[in-house]
Design brief:
This protein has 252 residues and is of the alpha+beta class. Helix content is 24%, strand content 28%.
Length: 252
């Protein structure tokens, strides 16, 4: 799964499909995996939190507005939410990625474009902003900028996540980029702990088995994906999926 993580919590517009996992996952059960999805209503924060702080000499104070998804809080804390934005451009780039005839340069560009669109959807309502006034060529205007003091941490998973997060800086004005190495088959004798206080995942393609495991380990996680495929094969590849995204992105 080509994925990257973006730190901070999010919410999405009402026309975006969102699913919550409602049935437990039992690895020892040989029967086909069956999941119940619940279509959730949109939730919003009617009263965004406001914080005042000292600003430039021209103005004594400006206001920082941190939009937080406080509505439906119990659901977001207890269940992982999966968002599938119904944008035609997202469907287009997923289709380009699926085609086995897509050459490596076009595949990587399609992955970057898909990542840009998913990041746009994921960051729609929670980016902290600064409100003030500026001088235009004609008059004074009220303005609102993304607050650069609270950069978004973008964490692509090596290697495929590099292409997915390639255009992060073009959609998010203030970002810090970290890299996460991942080995497909961890030794069973070792345990690994991931500590991220508040985050969501962006993925080109997702499948129920992986989503179920994420739901069990990270309740409250929010996942944005281009499409949800039905299953994975015995090697862990999503079916029908798009193949090895890392190999196809870098031509290896």
């Amino acid at each position: 799964m080509a994925a990257c993580c973006i730190k901070f919590s999010v919410r999405c517009p009402s026309d975006t499909r969102r699913f919550a996992f409602a049935s437990p996952f039992h690895p020892q059960n040989p029967s086909p995996l069956r999941l119940n999805f619940i279509l959730l209503p949109a939730f919003s924060s009617p009263n965004p939190k406001k914080i005042s702080y000292s600003s430039a000499p021209r103005r004594s104070f400006v206001t920082v507005k941190s939009h937080m998804a406080t509505g439906e809080k119990p659901i977001s804390e207890e269940r992982m939410l999966v968002y599938v934005p119904p944008h035609p451009l997202i469907k287009h780039w997923v289709s380009v990625l699926r085609n086995e005839q897509t050459p490596s340069p076009i595949f990587r560009n399609a992955m970057a474009e898909l990542g840009r669109l998913l990041m746009y959807e994921a960051s729609r309502d929670w980016l902290p902003t600064v409100v003030g006034e500026i001088q235009t060529p004609m008059d004074i205007a009220s303005v609102e900028f993304i607050d650069p003091r609270e950069p978004v941490a973008v964490v692509p998973i090596l290697r495929a996540g590099l292409a997915l997060a390639e255009l992060a800086s073009s959609i998010l004005p203030a970002t810090k980029t970290y890299h996460l190495g991942y080995q497909k088959n961890f030794p069973k004798a070792h345990e690994y702990l991931l500590l991220i206080p508040c985050w969501q995942q962006i993925s080109a393609v997702a499948a129920p088995p992986a989503l179920q495991k994420l739901s069990e380990n990270f309740p409250g996680l929010q996942v944005y994906t281009g499409i949800i495929d039905p299953t994975v094969n015995d090697k862990g590849f999503i079916i029908p999926g798009l193949g090895d995204a890392g190999d196809r992105s870098f031509g290896t």
